[in-house]
Amino acid sequence: MKTFSYNDLAYSVEAAGNAWDIVCTRGDGKTAVVAAGVLVGVAEKDVEARARALVRVINPVGIRSIGPDVGHPQRVGDIIIVGPDVGHPNFIYWNKDSASCPKTL
Amino acid sequence: MEIKGSVAVITGGGNGIGEAVAKYFVSNGAKVVIVDMAQANIDRVVAEIKGMGGEVIGVQANVTSEADTARFYQAAIEAFGQVNIVVSCAGIIRDGTMLALDKETGKVSRKMGLDKWQPVIDTNLTGTFLTIRDGAEAMVNGGWKGLLVAISSVNKAGQVGQLNYSSAKVADALLPKIVVGEFLMRGIRNIRCIAIAPGYTATPMVAGMNQDALQALLKDVHLGRLVEPIEIARLIGHAVENEAINATTMEITGGLCYPGGIAK
């Protein structure tokens, strides 16, 4: 039997004839069959890597990065230019005082 | 095509018709991939199939997601090396009329909202499309012989109170003709596509219906009872083995009639 940990859960891989069974121990301590009779003919030395790969496909964990929208019209390089809301009361011109937050000297 | 040795991907395999189909295939020597939204259902069915001595994996997935659909096919190929049979059983109901009228004023008091319309279309139509599309992709790219099965419904005829469900199921019934036509056009001869249109079936979804309404519906069924999921599984099994069945939608209703004995 092989064991490994993935996403803080314990998995065991047991031979079932010329195939393999994968069992997971869930967070509550209960076990669940993830796969039975899979990876037919895979040798014992290779089975952990193959089982890990299968478990990763079944229960993917991770963050998907989405790159910048380089087609967006308002940008300089990767920075999106969003125009200022000059009507907002807290908008401060470089050469004028704010209506709601007057400069105090 | 033989069930024995085939690899079947079954969405909605965690209960109802999907569970029955999965167990029928396993008892006839197929390997199965149970796809469902509910992990508890997957755990139960996978454990039961292992107890039968079957070969199985379970994948929690949402059939309306392209990423999830790609993932359960990837898992099937990773585990069993091929895909030969796809049965798209995942389905939901959110029944209600399009309009409800106020009894006193006769004016519209309520409309079917997108909260009832969209999930049914997404699961029963878009989910079926994605499952069939990516199943076909896997079979074509793998060079594997296969059968794609969509699950329609006898309510494709148009059931009042199920505008959302009937709209999706009539589209599911049309799908095999278009898909097989496309296969013919592309020279793909080793993959078939059919749909099954069950009548009122003894599934948890039907068990959740108003029981008085259900008894009233059964008065018009010649068989006098609900169709059992295993009876639908046997029909799908027959379709796997009989390669002349293709590009069609087969009804299995127990003889559902309109009131007065007119065949529906």
From TrEMBL, chain A:
<protein>
    <submittedName>
        <fullName>Uncharacterized protein</fullName>
    </submittedName>
</protein>
UniProtKB/TrEMBL annotation, chain B:
<dbReference type="Pfam" id="PF00106">
    <property type="entry name" value="adh_short"/>
</dbReference>
<dbReference type="InterPro" id="IPR002347">
    <property type="entry name" value="SDR_fam"/>
</dbReference>
<comment type="similarity">
    <text>Belongs to the short-chain dehydrogenases/reductases (SDR) family.</text>
</comment>
<dbReference type="InterPro" id="IPR036291">
    <property type="entry name" value="NAD(P)-bd_dom_sf"/>
</dbReference>
<protein>
    <submittedName>
        <fullName>3-oxoacyl-[acyl-carrier protein] reductase</fullName>
    </submittedName>
</protein>
<dbReference type="InterPro" id="IPR050259">
    <property type="entry name" value="SDR"/>
</dbReference>
